[in-house]
């Protein structure tokens, strides 16, 4: 630890420049404090691009943004028809006026929080009205059809769309005035989609000191601005756009860019600092990514610096090639690497040949073994494309269970399409969270409606722990449509038991949320009393599904399994044989321009720290895709 501290102290910073413009690449990044880019003042290609996305912005115009004309799905006959979204002043409602050739002219009321004062009955009673900067927070709408603020898949400009239910699925449709009509499946399981929107609690209220003070247009006023609802949960830093593979599904398109974007050690430390300086909650978990992050020449020093700066959780998103070298893995562990997010698309070499250009199963196995030897945890990260590797959900789960002494999570990622693709290809390759839940359920014996919850379900734990410790805790308060998952116990004979089978999750987390609210009401310094702890124990008891109890899982074993989720020494090695291991099977569906919803990105919790400040993941890699514009700030020719 001493040499880690010395290493961080030795990193010096060049003289700081004025911190206000995208064009000024060297500056203290954590001090970025600027205003949203004004059209007349756009200087860099990033600023010009942001301004160009606003040319329609119907939601920004308020009621003047309506009517919005386009082509729409007629629910009466199932065909498309011309029509417009209009505001009905008397009812303060948004209506779709359709002129259908078959059904005539008719009007359909839309659920709407973008133009009207409608407050959905499902809104949480403690839903905050505004962010800390005073920007209104619209509650999540779990009713369809509904209006959505979205992007054109072709030009990315902000337009108005509509989300509706048909054939048991949830869809999004929109018409760009320049590029026409687009429709895409948002979730193949409308019932699950609705349940997810009900299984969450109040939103957060954003940052205390956003980097952009006067943002009003999302996502063109990034990054992080006063409209943003969540606080960063997992920091991301791109270490290099180089890669030792050439994959068609890679977000970074590293080798195709034609330039090298590799921040130096000082810039990386600045980006780390921006995450640690985030208020009210300093970020404690960072993921180095790329390209392939292990290719950065100062990789070990960067990991050491992150640990020295107070990150308790340092992880990499890697293809595992360098980690398959025992010496490299040993050095990474010694530097302080905690977790590897291992790119893992399946268990067959043929698949890797097709997707990644090389047979890679041997590399993956060696990387897993090296992590085992060096006490590094693994989360498998499969990118799932329908018709390509959606048949790998079960084999991947089995591989994880067989290696559950070192693998404790799978983060499936339904494919996110960058740029425009043909409608037929979109329909055949689109894989949604509903498909994922069904495939995991089939592979594990879980129940889709009972066992799957949104990623934001666990925010009450953070709220309670914050009161218990008196220190801010990160909160995964993303939109309920962003991610879902379930937790399993793994019995000693390898059987998977979904935890929601034994606990009523809404009783448990809702009870914890209410208890924390009662403690908070006693004042900012209030801490849980013994009586509160007794209440918490009672909430646990009440939530236990006594009728569904599994005699193979004793209460003591359950408590030890819970500890294994947070403490390394439990659930590992000889100690691990005495406890039930756990496995998280989850998925995050990163948006693309087809299914983009600004209500989701405003709640994004995965935050890139870049030379231009902090940006949500779904603005960097998808949607407006700011990545190449930001890389330009830091790029140099490939041969250097
Ligand atoms: S994504 Fe967040 S930071 Fe970016 S403009 Fe929207 S609210 Fe602001
Ligand atoms: S990265 Fe995208 S999908 Fe994930 S929380 Fe952020 S907005 Fe949602
Ligand atoms: Zn019709
Ligand atoms: Zn367009």
Would you identify the regions where 5 or more consecutive residues have pLDDT less than 50?
1-19, 567-574
* Major β-sheet profile: 13 strands, mixed
Could you tell me the strand content as a percent range?
15-25%
Provide the list of bound ligands, each named once.
iron/sulfur cluster, zinc ion
Indicate the percent of residues in helices: 25-40%
The quaternary organization reads as single chain
Radius of gyration: 24 Å
Which secondary-structure class do the elements indicate?
alpha/beta
Distance between the termini: 34 Å
| Number of helical elements | 20
Mean pLDDT: 90
The global form is globular
Question: Any overview of this molecule?
Answer:
- The chain is of the alpha/beta class and 640 residues long.
- The chain contains 20 helices and 23 strands.
- Strands 9, 11, 12, 13, 14, 15, 16, 17, 18, 19, 20, 21 and 22 form a 13-stranded mixed beta sheet that branches. Strands 1-2-3-4 form a 4-stranded antiparallel beta sheet, with no helix packed on it. It has a 4-stranded antiparallel beta sheet with strand order 5-6-7-8.
- The longest helix is centred in the last third of the chain and has 16 residues, at 505-520.
- The chain is globular and about 65 Å long.
- Residues 1-19 and 567-574 have low confidence and may be disordered.
- One iron/sulfur cluster is lined by residues 215, 218-219, 221-225, 227-228, 601-602, 616, 619.
Topology:
Blueprint: H1 2-9, H2 45-52, E1 68-73, E2 80-88, E3 93-100, E4 104-110, E5 146-151, E6 158-166, E7 169-176, E8 180-187, H3 190-198, E9 234-240, E10 259-261, H4 265-276, E11 285-290, H5 299-308, E12 313-318, H6 326-335, E13 339-343, H7 349-356, H8 361-374, E14 377-381, E15 383-384, H9 393-402, E16 407-414, H10 423-429, H11 433-444, H12 448-451, E17 453-454, H13 459-469, E18 483-490, E19 496-498, H14 505-520, H15 530-543, H16 555-566, H17 573-576, E20 581-588, H18 598-601, E21 606-610, E22 613-616, H19 617-620, H20 627-632, E23 635-637
The structure holds iron/sulfur cluster (SF4) (2 copies) and zinc ion (ZN) (2 copies).
One iron/sulfur cluster binds at residues 215, 218-219, 221-225, 227-228, 601-602, 616, 619.
């Amino acid at each position: 630890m001493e040499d880690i501290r010395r290493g961080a102290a030795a990193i010096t910073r060049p003289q700081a420049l004025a911190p206000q413009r995208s064009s000024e690449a060297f500056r203290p990044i954590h001090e970025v404090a600027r205003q949203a880019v004004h059209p007349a003042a756009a200087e860099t290609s990033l600023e010009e691009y942001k301004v160009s996305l606003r040319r329609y912005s119907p939601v920004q115009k308020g009621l003047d943004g309506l009517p919005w004309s386009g082509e729409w799905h007629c629910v009466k006959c199932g065909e498309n028809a011309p029509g417009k979204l209009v505001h009905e002043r008397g009812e303060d409602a948004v209506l779709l006026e359709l002129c259908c050739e078959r059904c005539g002219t008719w009007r359909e009321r839309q659920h709407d929080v973008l133009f009207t004062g409608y407050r959905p009955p499902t809104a949480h009673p403690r839903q905050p009205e505004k962010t800390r900067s005073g920007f209104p927070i619209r509650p999540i709408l779990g009713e369809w059809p509904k209006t959505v603020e979205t992007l054109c898949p072709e030009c990315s400009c902000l337009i108005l769309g509509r989300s509706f239910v048909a054939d048991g699925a949830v869809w999004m449709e929109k018409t760009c005035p320049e590029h026409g009509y687009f429709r895409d499946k948002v979730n193949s399981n409308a019932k699950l989609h609705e349940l997810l929107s009900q299984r969450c609690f109040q939103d957060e209220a954003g940052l205390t000191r956003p980097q952009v003070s006067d943002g009003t247009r999302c996502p063109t006023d990034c990054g992080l601005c006063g409209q943003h609802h969540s606080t960063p949960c997992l920091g991301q830093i791109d270490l290099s756009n180089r890669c030792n593979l050439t994959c068609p599904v890679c977000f970074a398109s590293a080798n195709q860019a034609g330039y090298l974007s590799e921040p130096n050690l000082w810039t990386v430390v600045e980006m780390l600092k921006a995450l640690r300086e985030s208020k009210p909650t300093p970020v404690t978990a960072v993921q180095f990514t790329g390209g392939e992050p292990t290719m950065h020449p100062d990789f070990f020093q960067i990991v050491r610096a992150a640990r020295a700066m107070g990150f308790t959780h340092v992880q990499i998103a890697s293809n595992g090639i360098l980690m398959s070298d025992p010496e490299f893995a040993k050095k990474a562990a010694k530097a302080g690497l905690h977790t590897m997010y291992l790119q893992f698309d399946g268990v067959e070499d043929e698949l890797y040949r097709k997707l990644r250009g090389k047979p890679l199963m041997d590399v993956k196995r060696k990387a897993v073994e090296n992590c085992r030897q060096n006490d590094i945890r693994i989360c498998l990260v499969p990118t799932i494309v329908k018709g390509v590797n959606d048949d790998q959900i079960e084999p991947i789960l089995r591989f994880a269970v067989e290696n559950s002494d070192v693998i404790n999570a799978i983060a499936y990622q339904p494919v996110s399409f960058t740029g425009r693709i043909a409608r037929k290809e979109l329909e055949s390759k689109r894989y949604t969270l509903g498909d994922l839940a069904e495939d995991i359920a089939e592979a594990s014996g879980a129940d889709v409606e009972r066992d799957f919850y949104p990623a934001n379900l666990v925010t009450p734990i953070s709220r309670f722990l914050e009161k218990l410790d008196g220190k801010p805790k990160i909160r995964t308060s993303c939109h309920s449509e962003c991610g879902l998952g379930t937790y399993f116990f793994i019995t000693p004979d390898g059987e998977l038991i979904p935890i929601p089978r034994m606990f009523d999750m809404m009783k448990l987390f809702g009870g914890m949320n209410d208890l924390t609210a009662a403690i908070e009401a006693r004042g900012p310094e209030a801490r849980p009393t013994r009586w509160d702890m007794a209440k918490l124990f009672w909430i646990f008891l009440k939530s236990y599904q006594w009728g569904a109890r599994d005699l193979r899982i004793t209460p003591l074993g359950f408590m030890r399994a819970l500890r294994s989720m947070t403490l390394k020494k439990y659930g590992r090695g000889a100690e691990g044989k005495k406890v039930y291991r756990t496995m998280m099977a989850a998925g995050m569906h990163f948006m693309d321009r087809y299914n983009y919803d600004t209500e989701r990105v405003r709640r994004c919790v995965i935050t890139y720290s870049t030379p231009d400040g902090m940006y949500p993941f779904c603005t960097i890699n998808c949607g407006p895709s700011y990545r190449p514009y930001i890389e330009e700030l830091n790029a140099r020719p490939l041969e250097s």
